[in-house]
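Model: You mentioned two targets. I'll fold them one after the other.
Researcher: Yes, keep them separate.
Model: Target one:
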Amino acid sequence: MKSLLELVDDGQTVIGYDGSIHCKRRHNFCAFIVYMEWDATSLDDYLTVVKLQCTRSNVLHHNAHVIFKGGDGLFNDYYEPLVKIYHDCHGIRRIRQKNFHLRSEPVKKFWDSYSYDVNIDSQSTWVFFNYQVLGMNGLDRSNVDKDLNDWLNETDVTGRRHLFEDDSIRFSDDAFSSDTTS
């Protein structure tokens, strides 16, 4: 396993995010997650996509390493990370979007890790046309896996066991270790 430190090149900032998404309305729910760098005056940058995952416990845990690069525009010394969470917490075939702003990160930061919790039970906006989820996030429908495509087309995917497997690796203090002896 590579450490976050090994993922960093000059001129880049790597942040390891451990996210916990809470839905009290349903035990079984699924979510598709997009990390982006939010800009008020220019186009947003789409950075990392977390594949469709489901949970049976009211909480979906995931992680992602997000690479920021190239600065954030003239006179702006901070990246403004945003996570878009597309979820069916309100019911199967009722996909909604929740935007959650993460803490700003200095452009000159080398690496860091960050954990966050977000409740998706309320104040979510409808995604009126599910196919727009892909286009809005810079994704081509032909490059999307079958599970996500089916879910966006309002198919109940909660019977697919592999979507409930947590294949992510949690970031910890040892993830930042530069010790390569093992």
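Model: Target two:
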Amino acid sequence: MAQGARHDVCLQRFDGRAGSDPPRHRRTYASSRGNRAETDVGVSERRHSGFQPSARPDEQPEDERGFHSLVVSNSWGMFHPDWDAMPGTPGSYFDDPLHPFFELLEDLASMGVDLVFAAGNCGPDCPDGRCPPPSIDPAHRRIGGANAHRDVLCVTGVDVNRRLAGYASHGPGTLQHEKPDVAGYTHFLGSRAFGASAADTGTSAACPIAAGVVAALRSRFPTDPASPRRSPAAIRDYLRQTADNPHQRGWNAQYGFGVLDTSQLDTAANVL
């Protein structure tokens, strides 16, 4: 399907193919998934407590400190710009690079923490009902906030047939243009958290799949502050370079740099 073509993959029905459990790995893995509170406080202000820089790898519990690496998986995002200061205004979580929350992300990345965020579910074909309506400025429906930060691996979603999910948010990003970075698998039978035949859906499901791939890499190539080759940026670059783009070379606003390709992980030792 060419870039820009309409996707008919709203993925409202489970396609019957079972997914496997995420691979086990011995990395410290943190997940933060929150629900929007019904208050007038900006949505980003309720996220700070889960992202304090005290999560640095060298301050882990003593029995985990030998693992060296920390992968943070975040399946939340801001559906509508009205949830915070409006885009284009100082302090806007959506697009102000000086927002204080982003300072926390930068601190974590500087400590060697790998950050993996979901792209969001405001895609043009079948967006979540909380997203801005199609009539709103398209610039306000792209990937924004921390999900578009340069220090984050931003993950969109494809089904097991590698079709882009119709609800997956499109780039570019508000803070960094080339977002999403990569696509991970979603809409598969995995956790069964919502019933025996209920699929795990959304870019929220694709995000921890990608985080598991990062953790698998870290089990072989742990964070090393003395080596730029082991930095979070190097991990992101490697996953972008080895991703399989089914439609074109390079980045596009739908798939990013392509679908994560774990068959390439045996080449990681050449660059990490």
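Researcher: Noted. Anything on target two?
Model: The beta strands are 28-32, 70-74, 114-118, 152-158, 182-185.
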